[in-house]
Amino acid sequence: FQEYDVCIAGAGLSGAVIAERYASQLNQSVVIIEKRNHIGGNCYDYIDEETGIRVSQYGAHLFHTDNSRVWKYVQLFSDWTKYEHEVVGVVNGKHVPIPVNIETVNTLFDLNITSTEEMDNWLSEEQVKYDHEPKNSEEMALSRVGRRLYELIFHPYTIKQWNKEPSELGPEVTARIPVRNNHDSRYFGDPFQALPTSGYTAIFDNLLCHPNIDVRLDTDYFKVRDTLRCKHTYFTGPIDTYFAHLGYKKLEYRSLDFERKVVRDTGERGTFQPKFVVNHPSAGTDFTRIVEYKHLLNQTSDHTILFVERSKDGGEPYYPVPNEENKALYRRYQGLAAKEDNVTFVGRLANYKYFNMDQAIINALELFEKDNGVLSQEKDPIA
Ligand code: FAD
Ligand code: NA
């Protein structure tokens, strides 16, 4: 047996933050076991060999938060370059801001709205009024944006994304989509929005470089757990894999396919599309968006690299499918998890919940404190 104070399954953000806290704050020994051949979980990025451009393996990642504690914490592990994400969508052949704002509706419907008040009035006339709370994603979208925007953007995009009618999905899917009554074209409203200057993977190198932390890649936790003696275990993989031996149904996930395309000889700064991310919500194409990493951090290359995204079932588990059946199934797994002694289930896969990076970080920090009854001090505290 190998003995550790803390064993962690998964070297994504949740596992890496917990490892860092135990090592730096409590001087405990930690092993972090990762089945992939790299650290970083879904935040992993690398330099594409052919173009020299840094790309993310599991989809575009934009860091944004309104949590100043998280913002301070991440300063300890990376320099950050301010970056306010903006997305355009191709709708009826036109490039329009996403989320929908004044310019979006002016362009699509040939209007001349100039003020927030006018936009509120326009929205209110478009919105479908119900005498009950919206009970699915169709009603939610219609109550927020009305039928025209729904049919142009939200309905076809939801079908591409989920392969389900919005009426089959819980209201929360379209409730999250922001609609702006002003000219703000930023994708996120958070006060802190930035990119790690040397990429995301470097953050994980810095989180995990403590001498108390052993990192084991290419290792499935379930294959090695009998060889470990751990005072406490943190499991950050899919909760249903932990209980797979019971033979319950698996939790459903939606996944993504990334088709890599290099456009050659664009010139040092030449790009293919106007923004880092261009959405394609319409039914006329089978992809949801195109991501062009050359837009980030002033990267230069003779070429540019694109990832054309399509949603699919199977493959890497990315987005929990929000319907009643899955929620009920998750609650069963959750009940089992609560009974596991000395094991904490943490992160997006163990909670069957989409977390942004900042939520994953604050959850991990708070769990560490709760499990240890301590208030940790970030090293080099920023007073
Ligand atoms: P993960 O990163 O998934 O890490 C879990 C790790 O556990 C994985 O490395 C996995 O291989 C490992 N594992 C699983 N099972 C085992 C096992 N049996 N043994 C060993 N290891 C195992 N957040 C943002 O804030 N902004 C964004 O723009 C953004 N974009 C995203 C885009 C996509 C497509 C996705 C899917 C997520 C995005 N996120 C974004 C969310 C972000 O990726 C998560 O917040 C973050 O990855 C959560 O970290 P985690 O450690 O909980 O999970
Ligand atoms: Na995302």
From TrEMBL:
Family annotation (Pfam families): GLF, NAD_binding_8
Domain (UDP-galactopyranose mutase C-terminal): residue spans on this chain: 153-354
GO molecular function per UniProt: flavin adenine dinucleotide binding; UDP-galactopyranose mutase activity
Keywords: FAD, Flavoprotein, Isomerase, Signal
Cofactor(s) annotated in UniProt: FAD
Family: Belongs to the UDP-galactopyranose/dTDP-fucopyranose mutase family.
Name of the featured protein: UDP-galactopyranose mutase
